[in-house]
Amino acid sequence: MKVLVVGATGDVGSAAAKIAVTKGHSVRALVRSTSNRDKLGEAQDKVEFVEGDILDPGSLERTLEGVEAMIVSIRLTPGEMQKGRTYKDVEEQGVKNLLEAGRKKGVKKIIHVSAAGVGPHCVSDMYRAKHQAEEAIRQSGIDYTIFKPSGMFKDFQFFHIPTVIKLGATNKWPSSPIEFHMNPLSHLDLAQCMVDALTNPKASNKTLEIGGPDCITQGDLLNMIAKEAGINANYTEGVSKEELIARVKSSPQKGFFTAEQLQDFLIDKKIDHSVIQEIFGIRFQTVAEYLKQAVPAVKEAMAKAGQQPAH
Fold first, then answer.
1. Are residues 83 and 170 in the same domain?
2. Residue 29: helix, strand or coil by DSSP?
3. Do residues 29 and 2 make contact, with C-beta atoms less than 8 angstroms apart?
4. Any domain includes 27
5. Separation of alpha carbons 40 and 44, rounded Å
């Protein structure tokens, strides 16, 4: 199958492109001239790169010539924000442009990555754009599979693990609530399901909340990280959602997320993993398996950077 991957130089998109190549698909990647293609590794030699922009409909029609399916894994990057682009521009209008060009060129399937919790009730610019993109896909007439992941392991490596190591022995998590549930998963497992959905009839015209086999609270995750790192911590106290939102409202310039974004994605989410298993039948990596590899790697990297753990 001739597949266009949009977001092929990101974590999820590059994984999907590499898996698609190994499955025998013909892969074309929509990139910018400045895109770093290193994440594609050896698959670079087997991927056709086409430069374009999802906000330039003309470039998309050329890009989609002969394409049968699209895999779309995009997000608004800091670089795009500096250019004045918004979530509505990239994550909503960009998807609508892909759909319009896809219809004209006879695309038969679209695989799209959204997020758990996205829906008509959302109040933030980020999640409203994602919801409108989902709606446009469902109404497009193109066969679709929309994946809505509940947290991904790769995010823990950049925030949760180093923060736990820096905090050391404590019972207080100062960043967010600890009681909310999630079903985190490996982006590699997500990518495998995305590629499988190209030809899997069980995934046809489905919106799927997707998570790994472990349904845990954030407190559970933090304690698992501490144990793997050899830290005597027991996280029993976090920050309430209301307190965190109030804090961000009072000092919005200090927060990474807006109060509205926190309102949308700080949710208690329990996903039935058996639904995903029935459709895709793959064995997902567990949280414990991931942490056994990731925690030592992060500790080593922090030590090399001169960041000593708290005592």
1. no
2. strand
3. no
4. yes
5. 6
DSSP 43: G
Overall size of the chain counted in residues: 311
Joined tokens for residue 47: 């991927």
Whether residue 112 is found in the same domain as residue 165: no
CA distance 101 to 29: 16
Task: Judge contact between 26 and 93, C-beta under 8 A.
Answer: no
Residue 63 lies in a domain: yes
- Strand partners of residue 38: none
Q: Is residue 129 part of a domain?
A: yes
Q: Which two tokens stand for residue 70?
A: 């699209």
- Looking up tokens 């919801």 gives 131
DSSP 185: B
pLDDT tens, position by position, for the chain (311 residues)?
999 999 999 999 999 999 999 999 999 999 887 778 888 988 989 999 999 999 999 889 899 999 999 999 999 888 888 889 999 999 999 999 999 999 999 999 999 999 999 999 999 999 999 999 999 999 999 999 999 999 999 999 999 999 999 999 999 999 999 999 999 999 999 999 999 999 999 999 999 999 999 999 999 999 999 999 999 999 999 999 999 999 999 987 766 789 999 999 999 999 999 999 999 999 999 999 999 999 999 999 999 888 766 55
Strand pairing partners for 112?
72, 146
Provide the residue range defining the domain that includes 136.
2-149
β-strand partners of 181: 217
* 5, 68 Cβ separation under 8 angstroms: no
Q: Which helix (H) or strand (E) holds 6?
A: strand 2-6
* DSSP letter (8 states) at residue 109: E
Spatial contact of 275 and 208, defined as CB atoms under 8 Å apart: yes
